[in-house]
């Protein structure tokens, strides 16, 4: 069984890298951020307050089809996800689902914020993906333009900084580099180069474990 943990802040490229690693190693992949996004969106739909733990907890048994809702991908829902994910009860409600996915026969790749620290601290390989705030905001800007949106660079930078601060400073499972993780800064890397480097880092960690 091979478990690979990929963590990092918003738009660092961790999802792209996790999916490429999944193809390379023939493993299933889970974007754990989608679970928190689904909780955030269902609080909104229920007219609840994302900062209120009881409202956020009530949204944790969302219907599975919500995970395919394109609305989950917006930066607004990313911010909601970041607000509901502060509550320890919400994190606890989503832990087992993530651990079950990680420990399926053969193993898995998960990307998120706390995979290497909390969900799978004994993962066989851990990568912490990062990039400068400006590069990350620029990626979100380009994505929004490509999807016909009218993004504003200054508000994207402000949203990403606010999310970074909240994710790094919360009491439960804050975003930080896990023990044993390798850092991969994608600021100046093409997607192809980032994927090549990620595979090399994972190969070296798996080799070191043998
Ligand atoms: O794709 P992006 O990095 O923008 O966000 P995401 O991975 O979909 O995560 C959305 C929010 O969910 C994050 O800002 C975190 O607050 C929260 N999250 C978390 O707390 N733990 C995880 N394992 C994954 C996401
Ligand atoms: O999962 P996360 O929010 O960390 O990022 P992502 O969804 O993998 O990547 C965000 C955007 O940046 C996507 O449009 C990627 O194609 C792009 N990207 C990039 O331009 N260069 C990289 N080295 C990685 C991702």
Can you tell me about this structure?
With 210 residues, the protein is an alpha/beta fold. The chain is built from nine helices and five strands; from the N terminus they run βαβααααβαβααβα. Helix 4 (75-84) runs parallel beside helix 8. The chain has helices spanning 14-25, 33-45, 53-58, 75-84, 88-102, 115-119, 133-146, 153-169, 191-209; strands at residues 2-7, 29-31, 107-112, 125-130, 182-185. A five-stranded parallel sheet has the order 2-3-1-4-5, sandwiched between helices. The protein has one domain (2-203): Rossmann fold (3-Layer(aba) Sandwich), CATH 3.40.50. The structure holds cytidine-5'-diphosphate (CDP) (2 copies). One cytidine-5'-diphosphate binds at residues 10-11, 15, 32-33, 36-37, 78, 81-82, 85, 112-114, 163, 167.
Low-confidence stretches: none
What is the CATH homology-level superfamily?
Answer: P-loop containing nucleotide triphosphate hydrolases
CATH architecture: 3-Layer(aba) Sandwich
Beta-strand portion reads 5-15%
Strand order of the largest sheet: 2-3-1-4-5
Tally the beta strands. 5
The top-level CATH class is Alpha Beta
Give the domain tally.
1
Instruction: Give the number of helices.
Output: 9
Which sheet architecture does the biggest sheet show? 5 strands, parallel
The name of the CATH topology is Rossmann fold
The shape is globular
What is the helix fraction of residues, given as a range?
40-55%
The first-to-last residue Cα distance is: 13 Å
Report the bound ligands by name, code or SMILES: cytidine-5'-diphosphate
Please state the average pLDDT score: 96
N-to-C SSE series? EHEHHHHEHEHHEH
């Amino acid at each position: 069984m091979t478990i690979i943990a990929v963590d990092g802040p918003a738009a660092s490229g961790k999802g792209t890298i996790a999916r490429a690693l999944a193809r390379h190693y023939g493993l299933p992949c889970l974007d754990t951020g989608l679970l928190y996004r689904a909780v955030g969106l269902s609080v909104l739909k229920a007219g609840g307050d994302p900062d209120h733990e009881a409202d956020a907890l009530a949204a944790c048994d969302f219907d599975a089809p919500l995970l395919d809702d394109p609305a989950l991908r917006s930066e607004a829902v990313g911010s909601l996800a970041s607000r509901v994910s502060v509550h320890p009860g919400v994190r606890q409600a989503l832990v087992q689902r993530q651990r079950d996915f990680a420990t399926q026969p053969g193993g898995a790749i998960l990307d998120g914020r706390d995979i290497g620290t909390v969900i799978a601290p004994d993962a066989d390989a851990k990568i912490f993906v990062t990039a400068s705030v400006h590069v990350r905001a620029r990626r979100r800007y380009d994505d929004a333009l490509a999807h016909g949106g009218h993004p504003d660079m200054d508000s994207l930078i402000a949203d990403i900084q606010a999310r970074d601060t909240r994710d790094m400073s919360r009491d439960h499972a804050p975003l930080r580099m896990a023990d044993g993780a390798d850092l991969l800064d994608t600021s100046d890397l093409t997607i192809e180069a980032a994927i090549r480097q990620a595979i090399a880092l994972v190969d070296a960690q798996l080799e070191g474990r043998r």
